[in-house]
Write a structure and sequence with these properties.
The chain is of the alpha/beta class. The protein folds into 3 domains: 102 residues, PAS domain (Beta-Lactamase, 2-Layer Sandwich), CATH 3.30.450.20; 167 residues, Reverse transcriptase/Diguanylate cyclase domain (Alpha-Beta Plaits); 215 residues, EAL domain (TIM Barrel), CATH 3.20.20.450. It contains 24 helices and 21 strands. Strands 13-14-16-17-18-19-20-21 form an 8-stranded mixed barrel, surrounded by 4 helices. A 5-stranded antiparallel beta sheet has the order 2-1-5-4-3, sandwiched between helices. Helix 14 packs parallel to helix 16. The termini are far apart. Bound molecules: ligand C2E and magnesium ion (MG) (2 copies). Ligand C2E binds next to strand 14, helix 13, helix 14 and strand 18. One magnesium ion binds next to loops.
C-alpha cells in the first residue's frame, strides 16, 4: 500500500509494495503514483483516478498488467480510495498481486474450451468462433464468406471396439495432429489459419473464416484426405483410417451457425452414403430433394385418409384389332404443396414405411369400383379389365388374398376383370407366402401379370410354373428397337431377343403385353412378332375415368387417340 497526496505523489509506501514493484519504500517516496501502476495509459482510468484525487469520486478499481524490473510480468488489482481529511487528505493506493488467480482462470478457460484427448479446441470454442465469424462486423472487412469442412472418421468405432479406448484416443490425437498440419499449411498462403476443432467422438471440423470460394475448401478437404492416407503407428500397431468430409462454403450474411451445421451434417451424410473416404460439396438441389422426401414421407399416411390420391387409367390395347381390352390403374398424389406427383416420387417411400399397405388397399378398391362402373355404364360393350400394381410388401405384410376377395365381393366385379401386376423380384425365388397368395388369387379367377419383365431374372421356365398368365415386357425393350424413318438404325439383336421371348412365352401359355409403345413403327413391329397387347403413348397417356368412357364408345383406341 502507499499513501498518495493530492498532487499524486507517493508520500509513503509499505515494504510489501516495494517488493511487489521490485523497489523499496524509500525509493518509492516522492514518485508519481500513477506511473507505478500504469494509471495513465488509458484515458478513462486516468480521468477516474484524477476525480478520486480531487475528492469528486469515491474510489477506483482496475486490473493492470505490470512489468517487474526483473523481467517477469504480473497481474495486479489496483484500488484507489480517499483518506479521511484529518490525515491530510490524499488517497490510499492498494495493489494486490492476482497473477496466480489470473493464471488459474486462464487454465480453467482453456480446459473448458479444449478437448483433453487431442488438445484441440472443443465444440464450445468452435461454436463461439463460428458465431463470432458469422456476425456482421466480423465479415464486413474480408471476403464476406465462410467455409467449413465437417469430418468424420470412417470405421473408427471398429478401432475403439477391437483395440480399446486407449488406442482409440491415441489415434484421435494423431489424426488431430495431421489436421492441424493441414490447417497450418493452408494458412501459410493466406491471412489466417483455419480453426481445427474436435466436435466430439470421431468428428472434427475445420473452419475457414474469410474463405475465397469452394475451391479453397475443396483444396483443404483434399489435403486432409491425403494427409490421412499414410498409416498411423500407434502403440506398436499400424492403423489405417480414412475420413468422409462434408464441405460447405457460402456467404456469411444470412447464415446462422445452425443452418451451416445442418448443411454440413447433411453433406457429410452424403459423403458417407456415396462410399466414404471422400469429400462432398453441399448441393442445394440434392438438399431440396432430401427435404421433399422427408416432407413427403411424413405426410403419406394422413394423405391417404384425407383422400389426396387419385387414379389415372392407361389403355391396354389389343394389337390385332386395336380395341381397348383393359386399363392399368396408375396412382397419383394430388399434393396440396407440391402439386400432382407421379408414383416414382412416393411409392418407394410408401414401401419403406409400410404405408403402401393402406394405400394399395385404397388403389385396389377404387380401381375395382371404377371397372364395375364402366361395365354398368356400357352394357353393350365387352367389359374391360383393370390391372392394378401390387408392391412386394403388400404380399408380405397384409392379407392380400382376403383384401381382394372382400373388395371383389363389395364392388361386384367379376374376378376375371381384375389383373394384378407384380414385379419379377416379388415372385421369383421367394417361395412360401407369396406363392401361396398367388395360387389363391389365381384359383379365385384373378389374373397375375409380371410387370417390367426383362429387368430382373427373366427366368421364363420358372415363371411358367407359377400361376402367372401375362408378361408385361419392360419399356426398355421396346425403346431398344426404335427404328422408323427418322434415321435411327434398327437393332436386330433386340428384335430377335424380343421375338424369341414372345414365342417362348406363348408356348408356356402366357400372353405378352408391351409397355411404352410410342410410335406406330414400334407397334407394327411388335404386332408382327406376335405381341398380344400394347400400352403406351401411341394409344393414350394415362387419363381420367371419363376419358376411358369416351374410348369405350369409340370403335378403336388408335383412331380415338389420333382424333384427340
Ligand atoms: P409401371 O407399372 O411399369 O407403369 C407404367 C409406367 O410407364 C407409368 O408410369 C406410365 O405412365 C409409363 N408409360 C406408359 N406409357 C408410356 C410410354 O409410351 N412412354 C413412356 N416413356 N412411359 C410410358 P407412372 O404412372 O409414372 O408409374 C410408374 C410406376 O409406378 C409404375 O410402373 C408402377 O411400378 C408404379 N405404380 C403406379 N401406380 C402404382 C400403384 O397403385 N401401386 C404400386 N405399388 N405401384 C404403382
Ligand atoms: Mg405396372
Ligand atoms: Mg411396367
Amino acid at each position: 500500500m502507499a499513501v498518495v497526496d493530492r498532487e499524486g505523489l507517493v508520500t509513503g509506501a509499505n515494504p510489501a509494495l516495494g517488493e511487489l514493484l521490485g523497489s523499496t519504500p524509500r525509493e518509492l517516496a516522492g514518485t508519481i503514483a500513477a506511473d507505478l501502476v500504469d494509471l495513465t495509459s488509458d484515458a478513462r482510468t486516468w480521468h477516474a483516478y484524477r476525480e478520486v484525487l480531487r475528492g469528486r469520486q469515491a474510489r477506483l478499481r482496475c486490473t493492470r498488467r505490470l512489468k517487474h524490473p526483473d523481467g517477469h510480468c504480473l497481474w495486479v488489482q489496483v484500488s484507489v480510495a480517499p483518506l479521511p481529511a484529518e490525515e491530510c487528505g490524499g488517497v490510499l493506493l492498494s495493489v494486490a498481486d492476482i497473477s496466480a488467480r489470473r493464471e488459474l482462470q486462464a487454465r480453467l478457460r482453456h480446459l473448458q474450451n479444449h478437448d483433453p484427448v487431442t488438445r484441440l479446441p472443443n465444440r464450445t470454442l468452435f461454436f463461439e468462433r463460428l458465431s463470432a465469424g458469422l456476425e456482421a462486423e466480423a465479415y464486413e472487412e474480408g471476403t464476406g464468406r465462410i467455409g467449413l469442412c465437417y469430418l468424420d472418421l470412417d470405421g473408427f468405432k471398429a478401432v475403439n471396439d477391437t483395440l480399446g479406448h486407449r488406442v482409440g484416443d491415441r489415434l484421435l490425437a494423431a489424426v488431430a495432429e495431421r489436421l492441424t498440419r493441414c490447417a497450418d499449411e493452408a494458412g501459410y498462403a493466406r491471412a489466417s489459419t483455419p480453426l481445427v476443432a474436435r466436435l466430439g467422438g470421431d468428428e472434427f471440423a475445420l473452419l475457414v473464416e474469410d474463405s475465397t470460394g469452394t475451391e479453397q475448401l475443396a483444396d483443404l478437404a483434399e489435403s486432409v484426405l491425403t494427409a490421412l492416407q499414410a498409416p498411423f503407428d500407434i502403440s506398436g500397431r499400424r492403423l489405417s483410417v480414412s475420413a468422409s468430409i462434408g464441405v460447405v462454403e457460402r456467404h456469411a450474411a444470412g447464415t446462422s451457425p445452425t443452418a451451416l451445421m445442418q448443411a454440413a451434417d447433411t453433406t457429410l451424410y452424403w459423403a458417407k452414403a456415396d462410399g466414404k473416404d471422400r469429400w462432398t460439396l453441399f448441393d442445394p438441389e440434392r438438399n431440396a430433394h432430401r427435404m421433399t422426401r422427408q416432407a413427403l414421407a411424413s405426410t403419406l399416411r394422413p394423405a391417404i385418409e384425407r383422400g389426396e390420391f387419385v387414379l389415372e387409367y392407361q389403355p391396354l390395347v389389343c394389337m390385332e384389332d386395336g380395341r381397348l381390352r383393359g386399363v392399368e390403374a396408375l396412382v397419383r398424389w394430388n399434393h396440396p404443396q407440391f402439386g400432382l406427383l407421379t408414383p416414382n416420387r412416393f411409392i418407394g417411400l410408401a414401401e419403406e414405411d409400410g404405408s403402401i399397405v393402406p394405400l394399395g388397399r385404397w388403389v385396389l378398391a377404387t380401381a375395382c369400383r371404377q371397372a364395375r362402373r364402366w361395365q354398368l355404364a356400357h352394357p353393350d360393350e365387352p367389359p374391360i379389365f383393370v390391372s392394378v400394381n401390387v408392391a412386394v410388401r403388400q404380399v408380405w405384410d397384409s392379407d392380400l388374398v382376403a383384401d381382394v376377395a372382400r373388395i371383389l365381393a363389395e364392388t361386384e366385379l367379376a374376378p376375371h376383370l381384375l389383373q394384378l401386376e407384380l414385379t419379377e423380384s416379388a415372385v421369383m425365388g421367394s417361395g412360401g407366402r407369396p406363392q401361396q397368395a398367388l395360387q389363391a388369387l389365381s384359383d379365385m379367377g384373378v389374373r397375375i401379370a409380371i410387370d417390367d419383365f426383362g429387368t430382373g431374372y427373366s427366368n421364363l421356365a420358372y415363371l411358367s410354373r407359377l400361376p402367372v398368365s401375362v408378361l408385361k415386357l419392360d419399356g426398355s425393350f421396346v425403346k431398344g428397337f426404335q427404328y422408323d424413318g427418322e434415321g435411327i438404325a434398327p437393332n436386330p439383336a433386340d428384335e430377335v431377343v424380343v421375338e424369341a421371348m414372345i414365342q417362348l412365352a406363348h408356348r408356356l401359355g402366357l400372353t405378352v403385353t408391351a409397355e411404352c409403345v410410342e410410335t406406330s413403327a414400334q407397334a407394327s413391329r411388335l404386332r408382327r412378332i406376335g405381341c398380344d397387347t400394347g400400352q403406351g403413348w401411341l394409344y393414350s397417356r394415362p387419363v381420367t375415368p371419363d376419358r376411358i368412357s369416351e374410348l369405350l364408345r369409340s370403335p378403336g383406341v388408335q383412331a380415338a387417340a389420333r382424333n384427340s
